[in-house]
Amino acid sequence: MVTWLNLFRKFLPARFAGRRFILGDYHFDLTSFEGDVADWLNKFPISAANVEIYLALAELFRRRGEFDKAVSVHEAIAEAEIAGHSSAELSLEIAQDYYAAGVLGHAEEVLRRALVDADEDHSRQAFRLWLAILESEQDWHRAVELVEQYGLPGSGGVRLVNLYCEYVLQVQTTLAPALVQKVLKKARKLAVGARVDLLGAQIATEEQRFTAAIRSYKRLLRNDPRRVHLALSPLLALVQREGQQASLLTFLQRLYPDHPSVRILEAIVELHQSSGTALTPKWQKQLELQVMSGDSYPLTLYWLNQQQTLSASVMAVLSPALQRQSLAESDVHQCTECGFQSEPMRWQCPQCESWETLCSRYESKIVQEQKKVG
Ligand SMILES: [Zn+2]
């Protein structure tokens, strides 16, 4: 039988282009390869001349789901000790074979060794892959340990903060409240992102520590007003409960010039309404500007209701029409790294796997416009 293996023997050294071997005049499509790996390795020992072909073949095995074959080829390359292909590089390949196969324990075992033994570049890759494995397993405790132990090459503190948060969510019901607070404190100390303040506020609310919850929500809004849509409605409920409407009104009126979001003005108007006070001319002017922008149905309705010249029949026609228009353009969350869009809020982008990069499109636009003005 004339197999391409025989031809391969004849025409060494080989060239490799894309998925095809080119041996002299013969072209072989890798995807149709059906040989016995051990046999092949015996006949054609791995050398500098053919190592690229073996690497390509191993990758193909991995993509085809033949993970044991991928591992044995990678292991054979590692044993051959070819210059330019370090054992660290091959360990990472083997770990990826196991990862792709779903044999995560084996993958971690290989990565643990690579992380310690490899040069800086490979050890960084090993770290990333290991962390991705732990994230996919939702093993937040060990993910936190890994990051604490080996640092955060190139990914910043936001990732660690989010690992802490995921961990807290996972153990919240089983861990003592004091220990949960300890983890949250560690996360807060990193002083990045908005999530830890939101989570802190939610937990404080559950534990009926309402003042602490209000403080946490306010810190979140000061640090990252783009998260206003996540914080405002629970915050409004809390201040009503605690009778702190006046102080929240002052807070929001100070926040608004830096981040003139329609959501904040809606809350300002709501707080005025509930206390029965009229808007000052300055806030009346802001109200009119927002009505002209057409971004808020509640504010438009509020403004229309102020107009004594409009009859009830005009209002009856206008109001549902405006509501439909405002609902037609609902806000979405968009990743600032890769553009992925999602209706519900997600803390990790499913497309590029960055943490805390999904933001309200509307609130992000305001931040950008403010930057231009400033
Ligand atoms: Zn993304």
From TrEMBL:
Record-annotated LapB rubredoxin metal binding domain positions: 333-358
TM region positions: none
Keyword Metal-binding: yes
GO MF annotation list: metal ion binding
One Pfam family, short name: TPR_7
Record keywords: Metal-binding
Protein's recorded name: LapB rubredoxin metal binding domain-containing protein
Organism: Reinekea forsetii
